[in-house]
Amino acid sequence: MANALTLTETPGLGKLLIESRFRVQSHQRNYAWETRHVKQLITDLVEAIERGDQFYFVGLMVFMVADDGRLVVLDGQQRLATTVILMSAIRAWLAPMEKHSKDAHMIGDDFIGRSDFGESEILPKLSLNYYNDQVFQDFAVAGKPLSEARKVLKGYPRHNPNINLLNAIIHCHEWVESIAGSKGDTETAAKYLLNLVKYARDSVVVVRLVVPSEASAYRVFETLNDRGLDLTAMDLVKNHLFARAEMHSKTWLADMEQRWAQMMQNLQNAKADDFLKVFWTSQHGRIQTENLYSEIRKSSDNAKDAVNLAVDLLSASERYIALDNADDAAWASYPESVSESLQSLKTLGSKQMRPVVLAAMQKMEPREVERLLRLLETVLVRYQLIGGGRTGRLEISSAKLARAIFSGVVTTATQARESLSDVYPSDDEFKAAFALKQETTGLKQKYILRKIERELRRREDGAMTGQLEAPTTLTVEHILPRGAEKNEDKAWVSVIDADPKIVEECVDRLGNLCLLPKINKDLANSGFEFKRPFYEDSDLIITKEVAGYPQWNRAEIQRRQERMAKIAVAAWSFN
Questions:
Q1: Could you give the CA distance from residue 543 to residue 374 in angstroms, rounded to a whole number?
Q2: Which of 102, 120, 271, 455 would you call most buried, defined as having the most Cβ atoms within 10 angstroms of its Cβ?
Q3: What residue ranges do the domains of the chain occupy?
Q4: pLDDT tens figures, 349-401
């Protein structure tokens, strides 16, 4: 029957690989196991063997039969891929040994891939999705050197979709090397590893569920886990939308698959669930992560709504990836000043503000978006960076504003300012908090000092803010240095003797910081009198003013910081 489910028990996971070939669809999630999950699987196998267990159960796997006869992996990718990776690592260790080269070849044929009759190309037992497959084929199937895998991994950006995969490959190779080295001689090690291979082949039991379509499995997915790693909200949303599309027609499903693959390509260097939450919040207001899937599902319970949501998600993904990249084409029609505002928001850590910006990019005019970004920067500084306000309150206010922008209730930055009034401290509150602020993060220190400098320049007749040096040419100078008590020429002895806690309590006060070119960083631990001429020669107003102080102690640090606080009120204001 076309709609029948087939549930079978397979003697061993290894036999499942021997008997079939598998593929992961391009829109399916990436290899997601972290090294700890890989370690746990190997540990479980080893402990089962050592206990003499007749079998080790790895759970249910869900498949669909493809037109080419391969089994499409709907659930079980992590376990299958990790098994192939482990077998590949064992094959690599055995291959150079003359006595076991045949064993290595058999492992490759049975669990990794083999050539068909008359063909030289290896047909892999498992193919992964669009993002993972090339790395998987190179380093697990073809067995490229481990040194090359480490080199490739080192060059990856933070959210590259192959990081977990390469970490798993490297860990399996390192584990094989380690366990082999612990056995005393190569023959004992070879027998141990081959015993592990046989156990995986015969005794690692899996229940195989074959479904007629991906859509028919989506309810199963809602409760499935991959070895304790819950399916993400994005996984569940995908399964739900695909099921709804297929209920209408195969054509609608094919179109949705194409859109989904493009969206995931857009998000390849971002966390998909973070995007999903920002997207939903930007249109509907604040939501807890655990409620995200259920709310999305309720809003798209028929095929038409599901398709419309998929279209919206694809469009939003293109705007979302622009939030961290001022050079993205999405900003081409916006004023140039937007670039600096985006960099400032990134420095400040604007996670709670992302729904607001996403909604604004879709609903507001470019000039209003420019003003809105300046408002958000001001709020982040006044309320959070300087005021130390609660993140939860900021998230609530931001989500409320995002929804108002998306619905058309708020169309200007001035209206947005009113909406954020509860997280916009007054001038007096901001000035008081600034006068006491300590900041230990270098990027934020530099950001604050540059903004103060820019405001000072704005106040000077004829001064242009564009004359300020680029951040990369400047470094943060601690006037009273962190190592003052260890200074060899004892330049700070009298100050510390008079105020023993001054370094501990004042070194990261904003009043103790200024900017200098990086070439002067060797001044770091020198005394105030030695540093004074360098401050005097600076082109930066905020630095030059330091030379006018007669001495440097707690009182002078406080006096300077109070002056900076007055300037800060104007530097971070929105009227």
A1: 26
A2: 455
A3: 6-229, 232-323, 325-425, 439-571
A4: 989 999 999 999 999 999 999 999 999 999 999 999 999 999 999 999 999 99
